[in-house]
Write the structure tokens for this entry.
Amino acid sequence: METDVVTGAFGFIGRYITRHLLNSGRQVRTITTHPDKPNPFGNAVKAFPYNFNKPDELIESLHGASTLYNTYYIRFEYGGATFKQAVENTITLFDCAKKAGIKKIVHISVTYASEKSNLPYFAGKGLQEKALIGSKLPYSIVRPTLVFGREDILVNNIAWLIRSFPLFPIFGSGQYEVQPIYVEDLAAIAAASANDSKSGTLDAIGPETFTFKEFLQLISSKLSPNTKLVHTPPLMSIFLGKIIGLAIGDIVLIKEELEGLMDGLLTSKQAPNGATRFSEWLEANKDIVGKAYTSELGRHYRWRSSS
């Protein structure tokens, strides 16, 4: 039985990739920031620390595995974590993977990743891709659009805000588009790409396209029909996000994320390759989505104190 390594198997995307691989009969290890975090897979998945500063130990945790599925990155800079450091850590990871004999790396990136982007998140993702291509290892770069699922933070918290407040902002015109991809579909696409003998890059896209206004209208109609959607200037939306963030002790809205959304960076020019329709998933999960707020800082930075 072949073994794969998934970075961040206790997180969102990494968890679904891990579950897909286990269900396919693969053995899985994980490398994670918090190896002592509660393990949803029990004894089926052994956890190791990233050990970016101890490459020999990182190589050992990768040794004997066939494929490395990499989800490692940060959503924003916080608490000393920077995009620059995340890219440097990724370069270390790929170098150690090569030395450990990894046969292929499947890297989860983002649509329109580019080292030339003026948005730090997308630029860092572009630098990760450049490092992977430069490693000369066989690779698949999978670029999802807007990923949704039960454990998702972004869509869940949009839903929570719509449930919790009488008004919700439509940033600017709301006519920019999103193409949400279900996280299980993303996991299946990533796993299938590992079997491709050629290196390459592909997007992971859901079958439905919405303007952002339509996206919010759909969520509101299913979860809180009385919530009024109001067009607001982007800067006012950022200000409101900061006020709410201060009240709940989290980072709710990031200027660069909003710019990426409004620039249409959560879409793709490729044909959809995900099967799950967001509208149908939302209908099936409308009693769950947005019922509770999910803290980005709580999940990734404060989990010890909140557990």
